[in-house]
Amino acid sequence: MIRFVINRFVYMVLTMAAVSVVAFVLIQLPPGDFADSYANKRQQAGAPITAEELDNMRHQLGIDRPWFVQYGKWVSNMVLEGDMGYSWEWRRPVTDLIGERLPLTLLLAFSTLILMYVVAIPIGIYSAVRQYSATDHIFSTVGYVGLATPNFLLALILMYLGQRWFGQSVGGLFSPEYQDAPWSWPRVVNLMEHLWVPVVVLGTAGTAYLIRTIRASTLDELDKMYVMAARAGGISPMRLLLKYPVRMALNPIVATLGWRLTYVISGAPIVGVVMSLPDTGPLFLHALLNQDMYLAGGMVLIYCAFTIIGTFISDLLLVLLDPRIRMEGQA
Amino acid sequence: MQNDVILEVHNLHITLDFDGEDIPVVQGIDFELSAGKVLALVGESGCGKSVTSQALLRLLPRELRITSGQINFQAADGQAPVDFVSLAKDGKKIREIRGNQIAMIFQEPMSSFSVLHTIGNQIGEVIRLHLKASKAEARALTVELLDKVGIPDPARAVDQYPYEFSGGMRQRGMIAKALACNPSVLIADEPTTALDVTIQAQVLELLRRLKADDGMSMIFITHDLGVVAQIADDVAIMYMGRIVEKGPVGEIFGNPQHPYTVSLLNAIPRLGDLSARRELASIRGSVPSLFERPPGCAFHPRCDSFMEKLCDAQPPPLTRLSPIHEVRCFLHQAAEKEAAL
């Protein structure tokens, strides 16, 4: 078991290293750089800069050097000093910018994940056990609608409804009076009052998808021979359901926890922009638009890190859940 | 119910719900199981023998339904017989019988255990449920059971997972689970079909010992007449949801009367055939699907003794050739009439 964990951990670090290269290269791919986009802005503002100034700027920022030199510097600073570079756009260290907003992103992501699983698992199992019942059809219909509705549209609808019926400003995560207030109990309450909207928006499609998956995998298991064999032993229907088919059906759900985490986090930027949330989503989008490369690179890296960590957690959970995988790990 | 009969099936009908349409699968079968005897239900795939065996404990999957009939069980404690058909499908009453007074083993030992739980957990579950035993007691009893069915190193096996067992070991494990509460009836649905020949012989020997030593009554579902000859006392031959011939094993093998039984027996390859270079006999055609059930006697399109406007007109009634030998075939009804004249 310990060997398995160490093994996976090493893979995780290697993957992370590979991802960092890809992230860096990707960000360099679009034509132009931060200097160009800065020059553009100056142009539009009516104060164009000269070619010489532009070259100077490039030299100062270090973007006139080959990509691997830039990459090497970026990574060594990050690993050795925890410095993820400097955001030219914001004129602040990337770590500070991300650090401010990351906790809210995480809160949003984990609340969404919890909501998805808490809602989807019982409904999925129920729909499977009562296949083709009226309730199953209702859940399926609602589920398909949920699956098909784009996040941003749902966000707009909820914001409109919130405004119209509750007189509540549902954009953002805080009411104006708590926006910059220090942390206090009323601020937490205020956060919770706002949080449910983006959580619902982010979670709806995922929940609908999860319900379908759980329903299908439970249905698969219900017809298996071992379920009948266990029934033939006299075990009660509820215990039977939970001990055997459900336990089995949850394996693929647990296995994909990592992807779902990514799905939630990568779905967040659009919703974040629409609902003007103070999380990392809008920050990321702007960084990409302005070719603020260290900020964008840092964000990509962090999103990837979540995927990798999520997969790592999935792997560990699967090992705990499935003895067959446990054996492979030991072999 | 007769004195020594412990399980009696009377006029059992089972239908398959196919998109709202009721397709008959089992069409009124009758049989009795006497204490300490082994009754073999024999037939080709799709004749309804497995479905019948599952219906006995009300284990049928959702799409299959008992539409009429009785399954009367006489418990050992001398109480009045219970009709399982009248009980709620997964209700408390039938659950107290499952695994406790009547146990069942299945065709596929590979898939009859959950892969996520240890063998000991799955056997112990039955013990703790019915015998109200503690975890430790259940474990001790499980080790004993595993030993009894011939699993080597049972103290280690109890903590192993099914995938660490071979097919034969798993079937032994299933048998151990079935024996856990000392049932009075064991239903074995093709328990040896999925095993290789040597393992088959070992498992069969184990079941035979249970019958001889413990006086266990069994309903043995199989398509293998060789197996029947080795273990059964009585045989019921099934074809498309009906029992076409029924009697003691010696009578059925020595004096088969239904053309289907005769062809089945002829289709058994014999060692002598090899040297004589005789061709392997087979039954013409194949079993029709449930959706294309031939009218009258379902066997008539494959029967060499087919009589037009008789066999395809209506199902043959039951003819009692002797107090112990029954057949459903117009050939014998005709003979009976002649004898009466």
Write up this protein.
The complex is a heterodimer of chains A (331) and B (341). Chain A has helices spanning 2-28, 34-44, 51-61, 67-81, 94-129, 134-148, 151-166, 185-222, 225-231, 237-255, 257-274, 280-289, 293-321, 323-330, and strands spanning 86-87, 92-93. Chain A has 331 residues and is an all-alpha fold. Chain A has a domain at 105-289: MetI-like (MetI-like fold). A two-stranded antiparallel sheet of chain A has the order 1-2. Chain A is globular and about 85 Å long. Chain A starts with a helix and ends with a helix. The mean pLDDT of chain A is 84. In chain B, 33% of the residues lie in helices and 23% in strands. Chain B has 12 helices and 12 strands. The mean pLDDT of chain B is 90. The A-B interface holds A 223-226, 228-237, 243-244, 247-248, 321-324, 327 and B 54, 57, 59, 61, 90, 95-100, 103-104, 106-108, 111-118, 122, 125-126, 129-130, 161, 163, 174, 177.
In terms of topology, how is this protein built?
The complex is a heterodimer of chains A (331) and B (341).
Chain A: H1 2-28, H2 34-44, H3 51-61, H4 67-81, E1 86-87, E2 92-93, H5 94-129, H6 134-148, H7 151-166, H8 185-222, H9 225-231, H10 237-255, H11 257-274, H12 280-289, H13 293-321, H14 323-330
Antiparallel strand pairs in A: 1-2
Helix pairs in contact in A: 1-13, 5-6, 5-8, 5-11, 5-13, 6-8, 7-8, 7-11, 8-10, 8-11, 9-10, 11-12, 11-13, 12-13, 13-14
Chain B: E1 5-18, E2 21-34, E3 38-42, H1 49-56, E4 64-73, E5 82-83, H2 92-97, E6 102-105, H3 119-131, H4 135-148, H5 154-157, H6 167-179, E7 185-189, H7 197-214, E8 217-222, H8 225-231, E9 234-239, E10 242-248, H9 249-254, H10 259-266, H11 271-276, E11 319-322, E12 325-327, H12 330-340
Parallel strand pairs in B: 3-8, 3-9, 6-7, 7-8
Antiparallel strand pairs in B: 1-2, 1-4, 4-5, 9-10, 10-12, 11-12
